[in-house]
């Protein structure tokens, strides 16, 4: 993601910005905000150093299923 990239909220169950949120950018890419995995859990899966896996709330998945 470039530093000048602007993200727009698609879905957020709260207004604080401190909860699971879906964002999009001007090119249609989608980004998710969620809790980081514990280091112990992360060690059990194969993820490259430039990627991250996050835990997201079920309401986000319900929203996606509606498409």
Describe this structure in words.
This protein is an alpha+beta fold and 67 residues long. 18% of the residues lie in helices and 24% in strands. The protein contains 2 helices and 5 strands; from the N terminus they run E-E-E-E-H-E-H. It has helices at residues 39-42, 58-65, and strands at residues 8-11, 21-24, 30-33, 35-36, 54-55. Strands 1-2-3 form a 3-stranded antiparallel β-sheet, with no helix packed on it. A hairpin with a 5-residue loop joins strand 2 (21-24) and strand 3. The longest helix is centred in the C-terminal third of the chain and has 8 residues, at 58-65. The protein is globular and about 30 Å long. 4% of the residues are buried. The model has no long low-confidence stretch (mean pLDDT 84).
Strand order of the largest sheet: 1-2-3
Q: What is the H/E string?
A: EEEEHEH
Structural class: alpha+beta
Helical content stands at 10-25%
**Number of helical elements:** 2
| Integer-rounded radius of gyration | 13 Å
Mean pLDDT across the residues is: 84
């Amino acid at each position: 993601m470039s530093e000048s990239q602007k993200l727009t909220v698609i879905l957020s169950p709260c207004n604080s910005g401190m909860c699971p949120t879906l964002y999009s950018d001007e090119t249609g890419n989608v980004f998710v905000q969620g809790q980081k995995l514990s280091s112990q859990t992360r060690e059990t899966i194969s993820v490259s150093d430039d990627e991250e896996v996050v835990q997201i709330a079920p309401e986000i998945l319900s929203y996606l299923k509606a498409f």
